[in-house]
Amino acid sequence: MSKTPYSLLLLSMLALAACAPIAGRGGPDGAPPSAGGGCGMAVESLDERLRKTADALKLTPPQNALWETYQAAVGALLADQRRVQGYRARQDAAQQIAGKVDAVRNRLSALEDIQDAAGKLYAALDEGQRKQADALLAATVPGLDGDGAACAAPASGGQRPSGRTAPGGGMGGPGGGMGGGFGRM
Questions:
Q1: Which residues of the chain have pLDDT under 70?
Q2: Angle in degrees, CA 111, 57, 149, rounded to 5
Q3: For burial by CB atoms within 10 Å, which of 34, 85, 101, 140 has the most?
Q4: Residue 172 confidence (pLDDT)
């Protein structure tokens, strides 16, 4: 029996559990966070895209192992986007900004893990599967300002180098690709 349905179920359960309300969680002043169904809907949508993509690719057993690695990397990014730290409101402005920088570093690292897993998966696909992947795979990657960011809060703690000294380094520099604002983090 294929492990893909179990992997999808596990990913869904983890993502939904990460979005479940926790007693005492609220906005900076202790009030309930603003309403809106974004989190659950984004997870549901992403889960559906992952399932449809896996079905469309018609993966072989060796490719399925690469797919599971890819799904795990996507799940790690979703978990990072949903990490909530209640102490953020008690931090001063400099600490809050540092936390946002750490969150972006962590998410960049997670996106690079997704890129690595996707590259290995893509290399193992045949020509027909690659056409399907070209049409569907990129849509399974959560963005920094959508697909999961609706219930996301910044996390801190990453120790990834910033890359600002490398040619074209830094997220706002040439080749950085961010183009300005992420929306609220």
A1: 1-44, 84-89, 144-185
A2: 30
A3: 140
A4: 42
Give CA–CA dist 139/161, Å, rounded.
27
Asked whether the beta carbons of 103 and 185 are under 8 A apart, the reply is yes
Quote the pTM value.
Answer: 0.56
Q: What local confidence, expressed as pLDDT, does residue 166 receive? A: 38
Tell me what pLDDT residue 88 has.
Answer: 65
Tokens (6 digits) for 25: 């969680």
DSSP state for residue 43 in the 8-state scheme: H
Q: What local confidence, expressed as pLDDT, does residue 20 receive? A: 42
Distance, in Å, from the CA atom of 95 to the CA atom of 90, rounded to the nearest integer, reads 9
Rounded to whole angstroms, the Cα distance separating 39 from 33 reads: 12
Q: Are 19 and 46 in contact (CB under 8 A)?
A: no
Spans of all domains in the chain: 39-151
Q: Give the 3-state secondary structure percentages of the chain, helix then strand then coil, rounded to 5.
A: 60, 0, 40
Q: Which of 23, 22, 17, 16 is nearest to 40 (CA)?
A: 16
Cα 107 from Cα 113, distance rounded (Å): 10
